[in-house]
Queue: 2 jobs
Job 1
Amino acid sequence: MRIFRRKRCKIVYRSEYFSAIHAQNTHKSFDVMKFKKVRDQLIKEKLIRRKDVLPAPRISDEDMLLVHTKEYLDTLKNPMIIGKILNLSYVNPWDEYILEYFRYVSGGTVMAAEYALEHHFSVFNLGGGYHHAHPDRGEGFCIINDVAVAIRKLQNLNKLNNTLIVDLDYHQGNANLLYFRNEENTFTFSMHANNWDEISGKNNNIDIELPSYTSDDKYLKILTSELPKVFRVFKADLVIYIAGSDPYIKDTLGDFDISEGGMLQRDIFVYRETIKRNIPLVVLGAGGYGPESWKIYFNFIKWVITKGK
Ligand SMILES: [Zn+2]
């Protein structure tokens, strides 16, 4: 039997990530098994043990209110409203589980950020990265802005000064960009498709739009030249990497042409940029659609566990 051989990262997950959403298998694109597949494969290949997984807590109302309005949170008591944001084809009007899914995954992001800062570690949440959730409304499959809540909570506890959000999801992290637009201590770096709101006016921001069918070469060339510039001008105490797998060529929503190997190169590059500067890292699964999407996140975690340095 192979031996568990490293502690280079921690995984945050909880069975509710799956159990709370599997009944909602009515979405056309999102594989509700995605993050459970990642977790199961990590265990199957003996890359992690069950006890090495940090169990995500359910996010509290108090924490959600750090970012979201009470009026908006009240609307989430109606599953039909959530179903609309998630573009579900069917919603049981009495079903409270959809919100529960988001509450646990968002609690996982907060926990990941706290753990990463406290233990100076890389922590992977098997989900999270809801970068389209605004304080007063959800959109684009995003209900609770886990990233903004985590940052705000740690700032309020005086545990965090400067945060760099590296958002390589196929879609622009428009809600994060807007929410932090007047804050000098949160830098937003994003490479995304030209299919979301155009927002300008933030100082600490690099926002790069890429065309359809962007290839490995072009994508990686831009990433490897632009991201290091951020580290030169902004001293991050924490990096939150929104590692959406939807730039992958086999993604069923995105239209970039990034190969499986290219996706891994992307993730390794971001990882190394933080590790070599000794900055705690939180990685969030974020978007990614279709039956093969889970492999991209799995490949990244496997690489960190077996080779990461
Ligand atoms: Zn996306």
Note: The beta strands are 9-13, 53-55, 122-125, 163-167, 186-193, 205-210, 238-242, 281-284.
Job 2
Amino acid sequence: MSGIIYYFSATGNSLQAAKVIAQKIDAEVVKITTKTSILCDKDVIGFVYPTFYWGLPALVARFTKKLKIEGNPYIFAVTTCGLSSGGALGQLNDILNKKGQQLSFGKTIRTVANNITKYRIKQKSISKLVQSQNKKANEIAEAVAKKQKNNIPKVGIISKAFYQLYLKEYPNSDKGFLVTSDCISCGTCQQVCPSGNIILKNGKPVFQHHCENCLACLHWCPKNAIEWKKTTIKKQRYHHPQISCSELKTNKE
Ligand SMILES: Cc1cc2nc3c(=O)[nH]c(=O)nc-3n(C[C@H](O)[C@H](O)[C@H](O)COP(=O)(O)O)c2cc1C
Ligand code: SF4
Ligand code: SF4
């Protein structure tokens, strides 16, 4: 059996889940970026990604549409979310169905919600959520190893409507980013960006308006020098404690 898990992750919740499952089924773990190979001939294919606005991150949607899947593999998906995943699994299934494929198994993992443009992360809740996330990822790994199947919920009308908000604003959402004088020109933001949306000009990040809205740059900046409008000022940044920044770097120098 050969397996591959495609993941998208900004703050490591999804990468951690992907790693736990990959270890159990001995699969390769591959980050979804604009440069990921679209040829896939594996027997087991997994997708692990955060929920964005009760839906599928646009980068994952575009990648899956392009993916050339050979044969009749067992396909599963896991979405990590802060509260509710809405249509995040159903949307992926719809895309696969159009390619003559289907999700055999899909699960949601509730974990730390990282969208600090909208709320604060409660420090106290982190260790409990991380523990329960890892427990759930292990349970999912067991199920995937046995090639279990379940029903993937259809995308509801409310999920569809909420997701439209994201589609409307995501590529240009980086117009809200501000870089403060605390920036030390380390390049981390540019290196963690999954879409090559950041270039450094005179050592400072400049956003290129094809943003995925993932917030990796904001959370991983070692100086907290990236703010989104005024909404993130003095708010705690987050990443999954078992994931390091270097694991998420795409654009290494
Ligand atoms: C733009 C954006 C939108 C989000 N929308 C939702 C949502 O609709 N429902 C939810 O429960 N969590 C939502 N979240 C929280 C993430 O899905 C959650 O924190 C996820 O585990 C992050 O995964 P990562 O660490 O792999 O990036 C959102 C986060 C971001 C950045
Ligand atoms: S990660 Fe932060 S400190 Fe480093 S270049 Fe980007 S904004 Fe500046
Ligand atoms: S600019 Fe920041 S929020 Fe936008 S895709 Fe890159 S890392 Fe994610």
Note: The radius of gyration is 18 Å.
